[in-house]
Design a protein that fits this description.
With 164 residues, the protein is of the alpha+beta class. Helix content is 34%, strand content 18%. It has a 4-stranded antiparallel β-sheet with strand order 2-3-1-4, covered by helices on one side. The chain is globular and about 50 Å long. It starts with 8 loop residues before the first helix and ends in a 24-residue tail after the last strand.
Length: 164
């Protein structure tokens, strides 16, 4: 198999292990490797490959933005089909954007803005709304909060790790 940056069975198990709880200890990648039965070096290499391939964007803590005084906005935009990929890529690079997804809907690009102030969130919204190809942009006020769990479904348990 070699060094696979796709979401194969092992890589899915690795991502699932990260989402289940990052070890807070001096050698967290070694602990992940132990949990998965592989060396620390393989964990680090696979995470580098997955990040380079865009499968994972970052590794960091999840926090409740409102509890920390941040402002959040859910944004839905209508983007011209020929500009969809470009707009989504640009929006995904905004520091304040935590997630950006395409929807099969008239409002076809949805994303979340998390910023330290309402003014900063509004600036990010206006910048996104002004991108070429954006035909409409809407700030959606939260009515009810749902806690989602973005974890992957359990991966196949077969071992597909090729030693490095």
């Amino acid at each position: 198999m070699g060094e696979d940056s796709g979401l194969n069975a092992f890589n899915a198990r690795l991502v699932d292990a990260l989402q289940a709880g990052f070890p807070v200890e001096p050698a967290p990648f070694a602990a992940l490797g132990e949990r998965l039965g592989v060396p620390e070096s393989l964990v680090i290499r696979r995470l580098e490959l997955l990040r380079g391939a865009g499968v994972i964007r970052s590794i960091g803590p999840a926090f409740d933005p409102e509890e920390m005084g941040f402002t959040t906005l859910l944004v839905a935009m209508k983007v011209a089909g020929d500009r969809l990929e470009d707009v989504a890529q640009q929006v995904s690079r905004f520091r304040a954007v935590t997630q950006c997804v395409e929807r099969d809907h008239a409002l076809n690009v949805w994303f979340t803005i998390v910023a330290p102030s309402r003014a900063e969130a509004d600036r990010a919204f206006e910048e996104a709304a002004g991108l070429p190809g954006v035909e409409a942009a809407h700030r959606l006020a939260p009515v009810r909060r749902f806690k989602d769990n973005p974890r992957l479904p359990p991966a196949a348990r077969q071992d597909d790790v090729t030693p490095l």
